[in-house]
Request: fold
Amino acid sequence: MDKIQKLAIGSIFVGTVVFVLKYAAYYLTGSIALYSDALESVINVVTAIAAFLAVRLSAQPADANHPYGHHKVEYFSAVLEGVLIIVAALAILREAYFTLLDPRAIDAPMEGLAVNAVASTINAVWAQVLIRQGRRLRSPALAADGRHLFTDVITSAGVIAGLLLVSVTGWLWLDPALAIVVALNIVWSGWSLMKESIGGLMDEALPETVLNRVREIIAINAEGAIEAHDLRTRHAGRMTFIDFHLVVPGAMSVTDAHDICDRLERALKAEVEDALITIHVEPDDKAKHAGIVVL
Reply:
């Protein structure tokens, strides 16, 4: 089991602990805002399980039916997270609406808020771990899980602050109003997550800064060639796919052309981790004079 899978299992454990604590806070107080916070934690557990299954499947090697590997499955996991987040938000909005019609007093607010604060602190620490490791290991599922948890932390902080205000002012309507704000924030989080993941499924190119660096590496390390053109890039989970056409002198031997390709692959893989590179070699009469000029 690799590090990504271990982190995904850790998310399941942390999510379960946080849910138990947040539900205890709701049970102590009867607050609909804390109920919304606890319900989001249920979604965290479900999505953590989905993320674990996704990273486990994505780690499987390429096979006859999936010659490019299984890396994109992590994007499906992130899309599922977005859908479940939005479903949770709709459930929260329903409960908040009925509570807004009939506000009720909050029991033991300080005890409940203290328990919720402990749960939120655990979430904050784990979210930072997932975001940092997700970026380092280039795992969309882990990074998405971390960003969602961090959003949960922000909304929890808002709920705690709002319920403290309820205790001071006695404004019972503020409790369901906070739940509505939480739900709307959750909807935005879910939509953003889905949008980013769908971009991965649609084979978006690398960011322009990275593309410029790729072009620079090709220009510097393709000595002996004439130009490179038709550069294409895309992400698939942890993998980065780079392919382009390399124009060489027509009289150049296959061995010499192959050596240039090997040199380019080494240089690109040193810059772009987990890169899969395809180079199509062409003779000089295929030059377009509109690609990457070799320095």
Q: What stands out?
A: The two ends are 44 Å apart (CA to CA). Residues 140-169 form the longest helix (30 residues). The chain has a mean pLDDT of 82. The longest strand covers residues 227-236.
